[in-house]
Amino acid sequence: MIVKKMPILQGFPEPDTVKFLSSAELKLSEFSPIFYDIETTGLSRYSTFVYLIGAVRYEQNLWILTQWLAESPEEESLIIEEFTRYIQGATCTIQYNGNRFDQPYLEERCRRSGLPSPFGELPSIDLYQSLRSCQTLFKLSRMKQPDLENLFPSIHRIHCDGGQCIRLYRSYIKKKDPSALETVLGHNQEDLCGLGSVYTLLSYKFLYLGEYEPSAVRMHGQEELVITLALKHPVPVPVSCVTEEFYLTVNDSEAKLLLHLRDGKLRQYYPNYKDYEYLPGEDQAIPKSLSRYVDKSLRTAATPQTCYTWFCCDESFLNSRQKQMQYLTHSLPCLLKNLGK
Prior knowledge:
Blueprint: E1 2-8, H1 15-22, E2 33-40, E3 50-59, E4 62-69, H2 76-87, E5 92-95, H3 102-113, E6 124-126, H4 127-131, H5 145-149, H6 162-175, H7 178-199, H8 205-209, E7 212-220, E8 224-231, E9 239-242, E10 246-251, E11 254-260, E12 265-269, E13 276-279, E14 284-287, H9 288-291, E15 300-301, E16 308-312, H10 315-318, H11 321-337
Parallel strand pairs: 2-5, 5-6
Antiparallel strand pairs: 1-4, 2-3, 3-4, 7-8, 8-11, 9-10, 10-11, 12-16, 13-14, 13-15
């Protein structure tokens, strides 16, 4: 078994940032996270094995990256035992697609080796699941970790992908080629360092959760409304998106939302669309408790795109932060989820 430890000197978020952003997913009184990633000889947890586990945690005022590599299939249980000891005292794990792959894979390999699960009831933050709702906001066709890393101009991978690492690992076992070992470990290091950068994208989740404050609201005639939002945490990279209905830009600690009005009126969206029916003739949705009194030919099931009513952007709205937040917390998540639909 090979064990390697190294400090991460740059590119990883500060501990306070990691803790703050975790509130978008978990509510923990104590916070001691473990970032981790595994490398396996295949996708099946029943017929392949894990040969490398990499993890990052905060130790002595530094993020320290630790790797355990099995130099033979028989050493799989050894690296799992080391990881199990390492993870003791953690309050949560952070990974990418780990709820579907990494954790079930390790738990099955533990079962086959007669070892207890490293995780127990430990909560996890799966960045794939957490950020999946932001895919259209980020304008991504795929949601693999390297796709999200491409949002960061500073990230440049130099090592091969995980599939190619399997061949190199097998070559290392047979020939003890140090360059193959360096590439395999380097790929895992890139995965872990990239995980830290991708984690900071959780700041965008606060747009969906209503964690911001309207700092300015102004109308341009009866056609446009511009709302400026002060964000609770800066975003790591700027994004923008545009539809026929709105234009959104997000940069640093500020977001600007330009909304197109219809005769001074704005759509108020509702997330629970299954409780509504849409009236095409009136271009609005009404609750099912009321729609049953409307002729069936005049109504249809509401969708996320048609579950709205209209309201006037009058002075009472423009001067009330409470009304603005009521509108935003209901409508902004719906607008973002409707992107590309």
